[in-house]
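DATA SHEET
Item: assembly model
Revision: 1
Owner: S.N.
Input lines:
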Amino acid sequence: MPVLRLALHFIRRDLRNRYLGSFSGGLWALLQPLAQLAVYSFVFVYVFKAKVPGSDAPGYVPFLALALWPWNAFAEGLSRATTAIQDNAALIQKVAMPREVLIFAAVAASFLVQGIGFLAIIVALFAFGVPIDPFGIPLVALAYVQLFALALGIAFVFAAVQVFVRDLSAALPQLLMIWMFASPVFYARESLPEAYRSWMALNPFTHYPEFIRGALLHTPAPSLAGDAIALASSLAVLAIGWVVFRRLDPHFENFL
Amino acid sequence: MSSVLVEARGLGKSYPLVFRARDRLRALWRLLVGHRDADSIAVLRDVSLRVERGQSLGLIGENGAGKSTLLKLLTGVLTPSAGSVKVDGRVGALLELGAGFHPDYSGRDNIALSAALYGLSAEETRAKLPEIVAFADIGRYIDEPVKHYSSGMTVRLGFAIVAALKPDLLITDEVLAVGDEAFQKKCVRWMEEYLSGGGTLILVSHSMYHVQKLCRQAIWLRAGQVAASGDVFAVTQAYLAYQESKSAPSTPASAQNLEFHMLDLAINGSTTDVPVQVETGDAVHVRARVRSREGRPPVMLVGIARMDGTPIYGVSTEMDGVFPVRENTDVFALDIEFDRLPLLPGAYVIKVHPLDSEGVRLFDTIERGLTVRGASREFGMVRLAHNWGKSDEGAMDRKVTGQ
């Protein structure tokens, strides 16, 4: 219980920190991905005139929007959590505390902020007449929690490794950009040449846009087996991340 | 009821030697596959200690002896490389200045963080907040970022938090000395209450006076190992003797160039650095020896001052028309007795200085603490001789009945 309380404290602190001193406060959380959505939609629809299979009926904007917010939560959570230990070095070198709380708080705060934006955009799309299936929303919520577990597992490894090898945080933005383009965020898996489609299954993030679009827009969704594999792999990543973190945790102080 | 609150067995801490980025990568790999890192430097070796509930332990030693490392191991900030620590209770630590505070957050926010780290719920924190704010007594600064605080304010806030949390074990060092006199008194009063209420204390200090005052047990750490442990007086005496033997050869070399140089000072026959204890009205006998480079007789000045330097009384041989006794060609001795010292209970310093033969230039200083004890309720520093005039017996009773 005290650990949970501590986690809540750090989540609150993280949220307050983000918007401290900015005029619009929490509004930025919504504005930033909206701007992203507008730019990407303009570029892909009007400049490239992208033909996106599976997105013909509802249009490109909802297709992209349903993947963009989960990706932002995932990427932001990872990049914030990676430096969480290093950023709080002054604290953990002076005060005894469970360090995993810092990682948890960084990822959870990102998922919270982007999750609210995500919900808002789903409601907005529905209001604008996009044929969104409201009964898919609980399923999407479950997938979102599963994505959180995956992100947390990876974040544990990244944060621990970052303490030892500082290059990780420098390489992370590039890594995340490549990762985004290697995931079906801007496009559907079906747009890829036949030979590369099966490779996408190796990317743990692939499942989530496909599942969410399937649940809300009824585009081709992963099979039940695919869902099971995704669930198992996210839990496995979380377990591995936890083990790695626990193993390296007693040695952080020697390398900070 | 005497249960063990802190127990450490064979405690050791070593830091890996990492200089280049490549070493860090290799260390990461070794730790992941489960090897212990081989190249390391030990800062603490085989330390065992036991503190029972209600006990107080002093930790002494030179800089770099491993005192802070040991404290960090006890609080759980560091993980031991060898041995084990068991602490059976909640620990409140007040170590470095502003440790655990975030400089960008306000005092209130930092209180909330400390409370959360200590495991308090939001409601408990809210309940304690007024108490902490009142104890810290830093006015509107409580809503300012901690980076704008003076060091005194930082300590006030830190101590106020620890005091409100009422830990089972309090670990602290001399950071308290940063606070002003009023606040120090408040802290000391709180600590005495805490100790008499069954609290447990581990104190790190370079002041033998504080250690002896607050602790019954002591551990002396030397180069990461326990050099002595046990009764506080035995351990502090051993430590001081070691310090003296270490500094002895270097003192004459630097001080011999002085024309007059103090050799030693004995108060009531004691020559150690430990403050001498007397009671109000006791006799105090001061004996000091001075070396005169050219063999000229010095004028010697003896003074008593309060701990903060306020002079109380000073007198020189020249004023009273006496002369130090020549012991051999270049050593002179001074011998003075204050019979029935009228000082009231408190901490004082006795100082002796040599002046040149003309009594103009002051050359050297030697001083020793003097603790006056007693149960007097009089105010001030000195008992002045006095006679009351006529006194009406039974005045108290009449006053009460007169109401």
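QC remark: The mean pLDDT of chain B is 83.
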